[in-house]
């Protein structure tokens, strides 16, 4: 059985309103929403609707969120799977999962398939760093290529895939008719951070001294996921101190804590550097 998570159209409540900043990326994916909603308009004129769109950018910048919002805006089901879920030790499992995922998706079309960390299966063939597991990964990649070529552009299935390593992807994946479009999702600038704070401060009871712009100036280099984390940590810190509302002091502590967490994570990822 496929390990894909399936969300019905009724449960796709994420919309573009939930995605702060990323204005250019949103504009680009708006086209995808229209492809899903009005595919006939395009195919009647002989247009070929893209099958695959690659979302490229660092972790935590909202790629998954944006993909969900595309499904939410179009009112279609969302199938989600991580590239690493395809990679198994057992021969043939990855390829079978790919086939299964596409079979399910075609039955529910129009719909979105979202593949997070596509680089886990899409690394260029013959250059892998993990001996032994390579053939199996190549099989999985091949079956993904076969599935992508096997459905028509009018099938109503659009695949969004996310990566922060477009440079390692096999060029076969990027060829016309596959992931031939790329949208870059960058870390937010100060204005983007302010917008993201506005979204994530929404459910939080903040002191009236709290100003999203000021918070944005205090968080250079943070991705959206980290800003969301700051808001939640600040609320927890304030609550533990029995405060009636979250104030700037709590936010400053939360920012320190999130920076600390990031430093630890970096140490684990790159030992000895
Ligand atoms: P990864 O590559 O690590 O999977 P990602 O780019 O897919 O990361 P998301 O999973 O979409 O990032 O983001 C994690 C969470 O961070 C979101 O669920 C959301 O709460 C928050 N977030 C990230 N970016 C934004 C944004 N632009 N606007 C609002 N919230 C955001």
Automatic annotation (TrEMBL):
* Compartment annotation: Cell membrane; Membrane
The segment(s) forming the AAA+ ATPase domain are: 49-189
Q: Which residues bind ATP?
A: 57-64
Query: What is the stated purpose of this protein?
Result: Acts as a processive, ATP-dependent zinc metallopeptidase for both cytoplasmic and membrane proteins. Plays a role in the quality control of integral membrane proteins.
User: What does the subunit comment say?
Assistant: Homohexamer.
Q: Which family does it belong to?
A: In the C-terminal section; belongs to the peptidase M41 family.
Name of the featured protein: ATP-dependent zinc metalloprotease FtsH
Source organism per UniProt: Flammeovirga pectinis
Q: What is the lineage of its organism?
A: Bacteria, Pseudomonadati, Bacteroidota, Cytophagia, Cytophagales
**Included range, full protein:** 179 to 451 of 676
């Amino acid at each position: 059985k496929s390990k894909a998570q399936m969300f019905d159209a009724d449960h796709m409540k994420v919309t573009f309103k939930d995605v702060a900043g990323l204005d250019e990326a949103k504009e680009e994916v708006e086209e995808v929403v229209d492809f899903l909603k009005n595919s006939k308009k395009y195919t009647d004129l002989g247009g070929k609707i893209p099958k695959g769109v690659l979302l490229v950018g660092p972790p935590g910048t909202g790629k998954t969120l944006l993909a969900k919002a595309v499904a939410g805006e179009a009112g279609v089901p969302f199938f989600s799977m991580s590239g690493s879920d395809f990679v198994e030790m057992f021969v043939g499992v990855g390829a079978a999962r790919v086939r299964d995922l596409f079979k399910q998706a075609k039955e529910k079309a129009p719909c979105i398939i979202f593949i997070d960390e596509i680089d886990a299966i899409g690394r260029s063939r013959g250059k892998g760093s993990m001996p032994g597991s390579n053939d199996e990964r190549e099989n999985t990649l091949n079956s993904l290529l076969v599935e992508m070529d096997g459905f028509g552009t009018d099938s109503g299935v659009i695949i969004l895939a996310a990566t922060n390593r477009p440079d390692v992807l096999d060029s076969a994946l990027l060829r016309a008719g596959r992931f031939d479009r790329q949208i870059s999702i960058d870390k937010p600038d100060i204005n983007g951070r302010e917008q993201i704070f506005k979204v994530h401060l929404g459910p939080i009871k903040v002191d009236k001294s709290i100003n999203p712009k000021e918070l944005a100036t205090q968080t250079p280099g943070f991705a959206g996921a980290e800003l969301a984390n700051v808001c939640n940590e600040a609320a927890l810190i304030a609550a533990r101190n029995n405060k009636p509302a979250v104030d700037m002091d709590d936010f400053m502590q939360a920012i320190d804590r999130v920076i600390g967490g990031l430093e630890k994570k970096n140490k684990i990822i790159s030992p000895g550097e």
